Amino acid sequence: MLTARNVTKNYSKLPILKGVDITVSKGEIVTIVGSSGAGKSTLLHILGTLDTPTDGEIWLNDVNLTGLKGNALADFRNRHIGFIFQFHHLLPEFTALENVCIPGYIAGTRKSQVKEKAVFLLETLGLKDRLEHKPNALSGGEQQRVAVARALINNPDVVMADEPTGNLDSRNARELHHLFMELRDKLQQTFIIVTHNEELAPMSDRQLVMKDGKII
């Protein structure tokens, strides 16, 4: 489903990624682990088209992502790739329901359809009674679940998660780990997760270890 070939990234003359190859299948949970500075987040951002490689190609379902530019790239990203970050980045002036709906509205999907899907996702993630709460009225674990629902609203081919449990306590982190597994089992959702969490990584289908800009 997703394939990266010989991906490199240099900042000035400093090499960050040194020819990375990766293939991820539909419905697979892949974790990327390694020490700080190994290139994990840089790789994830490039796979998710938030950054561009110096060289190499990335394909998602037969579309060459490195060949997309401008609005075409932004539209493809919104429709096919979901993102979950350590600091969920919810918009504070909007409710949980509104935050989840925003990517669907941007995609141009009918508003009633987006709202129905958002309610379904939030209820599925255990937030039935929190739809109209703004982020400052939600716990850290609840905010991250809203971020997960937002990542899923456009039925993405793959969800990219960058240290998704890094800002959670151990109980909420464990619950989020199991949530990823449930979404994989129920929806055949594909995840690529960068993590330092020693509990999450072994639960994935496959671990990729990075060191000095390479997968070893």
Automatic annotation (TrEMBL):
**Species the sequence originates in:** Chitinophaga arvensicola
Q: Which PROSITE patterns does the record associate with it?
A: ABC_TRANSPORTER_1, ABC_TRANSPORTER_2
Question: GO terms for CC?
Answer: plasma membrane
Give the family, as the similarity comment puts it.
Belongs to the ABC transporter superfamily.
The entry's protein name is Lipoprotein-releasing system ATP-binding protein
Q: Which InterPro entries match?
A: AAA+_ATPase (IPR003593), ABC_transporter-like_ATP-bd (IPR003439), ABC_transporter-like_CS (IPR017871), ABC_transpr_LolD-like (IPR015854), MacB-like_ATP-bd (IPR017911), P-loop_NTPase (IPR027417)
Question: Gene3D superfamilies, per this entry?
Answer: P-loop containing nucleotide triphosphate hydrolases
* UniProt-listed SMART domains: AAA
Tell me a Gene Ontology molecular-function term this record carries.
Answer: ATP binding
In what residue span(s) does the ABC transporter domain sit? 2-216
Cross-referenced SUPFAM superfamilies, in alphabetical order? Answer: P-loop containing nucleoside triphosphate hydrolases
